[in-house]
Write a structure and sequence with these properties.
With 162 residues, this protein is an alpha+beta fold. Helix content is 30%, strand content 22%. Helix 1 crosses helix 2 (41-51). It is globular, with a radius of gyration of 16 Å.
Amino acid sequence: MTWHREGPSGVRIATKADADTVFALVMASAAAGHTIGNVSPSAVRAAVDEAFEPSSMTVVALAEINGEAVGMVALRLAKMWYSDETGHYWTELGLYVREGARASRCAVKLLRFVRWWSAETAMPVYFSLAPPVDFERKEKLFNRFAKRVGSLYRFDAGKEIA
């Protein structure tokens, strides 16, 4: 997918030339524990490379400080299996800001990008929020930019529910 319009200040849409940077940010996110299961670097590389193919329905935005990418958000176009063309929406593949840059408001800039992207494409963005730490603080941040429309539940085999 190619997009030539300029988004919110401090964020830019990544290009194929940014693939190594995006890979590094995804791997940093994984190292920080923001994953489900073990991370396969080769699977991450394949997904990042696929995201920059012209036929990909993926957009990646980078937040930068002094020309260095310190955060990213990735969105993928999806469609409800039962719907016609009115059922398209964007879903997140990930949002991450390097630890040393978290006080920089890069997360705010990336969430502004998400809101802008929704308006530009005239499609909603659905974002699941399931961080391993600081859930309440992150939920408060998300509530500034989006409307909560549901919940995410995790079922674990062998766990009894009273």
